[in-house]
Amino acid sequence: MPGYGLGQGRQRGRCRGRRWVEHFPETTYFRPYGPPQPPNQTTILTIEELEALRLVDLEDLTQEEAAARMGVSRKTLWNDLQRARKKVASALVNGHAIRIQGGDYILR
Question: What pTM was estimated for this model as a whole?
Fold first, then answer.
């Protein structure tokens, strides 16, 4: 049947839902001190991953409170948070730049 199965522009599982974001960052690019980095050494952090970090690690909200503020389940917030922490840690350890962009969110 046309339009069914993988390989025809369809993804497995449910569509990724939009997250509510309360804070849009003024600065969206950070890089290590020194000569400019090649573009392939830039880590992309999405707006919703940054929002999860901000709510849990900066505002000290519980994951349940942060998930409610973002309009997602606690598991979804946990996934975004773990992905964001891993990206930031990797960029810091490996000396890569961090660019904040993209995602699927609604600004509140």
Answer: 0.81
